[in-house]
Amino acid sequence: MGREFEPLRGHSFKKNMDSINKEPLTLTELKQKRKAVKNVNVERKKKLSRLDKMAIWITDHVGTMGFFIIIFIWTAIWLGWNTVAPPSSRFDPFPAFVLWLFMSNMIQIFLMPLIMIGQNLQSSHAEARAEADFEVNTKAELEIETIILHLEKQNEMIVKILNQIQQSQNK
């Protein structure tokens, strides 16, 4: 029809020209070649160990602004009460709340690797989703190519039929 055939990404021009010259796949053949689409989310959850699930749970809950605000308010109240409250009401007088700060820093040091583990698990899930998306896109690309081949064959057939009709009318 006057347009040049552009090879698809990842395909050689010769391969595409060969596929134009052969019969296109039927819908049944396409369905037989197609692998079942898998739900990456379900597969990922099945492969997680209990420790992985716990790390993700901690990451989901500790790695939020709500948790940060709770810890910040708790620390401010703790330090404020033990600094400005009447001496008889203080439950953790001056040298002791330094221990609280040390303990809270230790908790943060222990939580940081857990959060990083959870983030790594979540990023591996994102990679698996991206691979699944790529697989679906590749399948769609092949199916679209087959549909285009069918349309091109139909165009050729229509042109032949129109030529035959014109020739029969001219006689």
What is the strand tally?
Answer: 0
What fraction, in percent, of the residue positions are helical? Answer: over 70%
Judging from the principal axes of the Cα atoms, what is the shape?
rod-shaped
What summary fits the major beta sheet?
Answer: none
Span between N and C termini?
Answer: 27 Å
Residue ranges: pLDDT <50 for 5 or more in a row? Answer: 1-13
**What does the radius of gyration come to?**
33 Å
Oligomer: single chain
Number of contiguous helices = 6
- What is the chain-wise order of helices and strands? HHHHHH
Please tell me the overall pLDDT.
76
Q: Which key phrases capture this entry?
A:
mainly alpha; rod-shaped; single chain; 6 helices; 171 residues
Q: What does this protein look like?
A:
This protein has 171 residues and is mostly helical. It has a domain at 40-119. It has helices spanning 13-21, 27-33, 40-47, 50-62, 65-84, 94-170. Helix 4 crosses helix 6.
Topology (elements, then pairings):
Elements: H1 13-21, H2 27-33, H3 40-47, H4 50-62, H5 65-84, H6 94-170
Helix pairs in contact: 4-6
Task: Write a short abstract of this structure.
The protein has 171 residues and is mainly alpha-helical.
